[in-house]
Amino acid sequence: MGDSEGGSVVRDARAESGPGNRPLRWMALRAACTLALVVLGYYMLPDDFDGESFVVRCLIFAVCVAGLAGLILYLIMREPADSVSARAEGLLLTVMVSLAFFATVYFRLSQDSGQFDGLETKTDGLYFTLVTTATVGYGDIHATGQAARIAVMVHIVFNLVFLGAAGSVALARIKQRRRSGTGSA
């Protein structure tokens, strides 16, 4: 009895570290490279977009939020035959892009006087976005203007929808692993 249990553990350890995990390694590498590119792109964006009117900027914001929400819905509603890993990777990409997007919005709003207190650089914008997404809220940076408060409210609602979607994908992945683990035992 001890040999069969020990052998099972050894087989499980080999399966986890063997060539079957190459897709997982590639997914992690792609995620790391994507994160680096998104952060690089965020910091390379020009600081001034003064040519657009407030209404045009609001429309662009609304279209981008709707596009990100649509992408999330598409990734969640894919056919069940699609890989859960691909859905999870797509959601991870979406969250990276949405973090950069909201950080850009906050930084641009901070350029208008009276919209934010304590947000002065792109790093501050990214920091505030991460703190808001993580629902930490240190209070060192906060929205003071109406446009900034509306943007933060949209971000919070977006996060609630995204976190629900991410939880759903994570749960599906756990269920898929359990089914494949019990089916082979």
TrEMBL record:
Instruction: Tell me which InterPro entries the record gives.
Output: K_chnl_dom (IPR013099)
Q: Which UniProt keywords apply?
A: Ion channel, Ion transport, Membrane, Transmembrane, Transmembrane helix, Transport
- Record-given protein name: Potassium channel family protein
Q: State which residue ranges cross the membrane.
A: 24-42, 54-76, 88-109, 150-172
State the source organism's domain of life. Bacteria
Q: Which GO terms describe its biological process?
A: monoatomic ion transmembrane transport
What residue stretches are annotated with the Potassium channel domain? 95-167
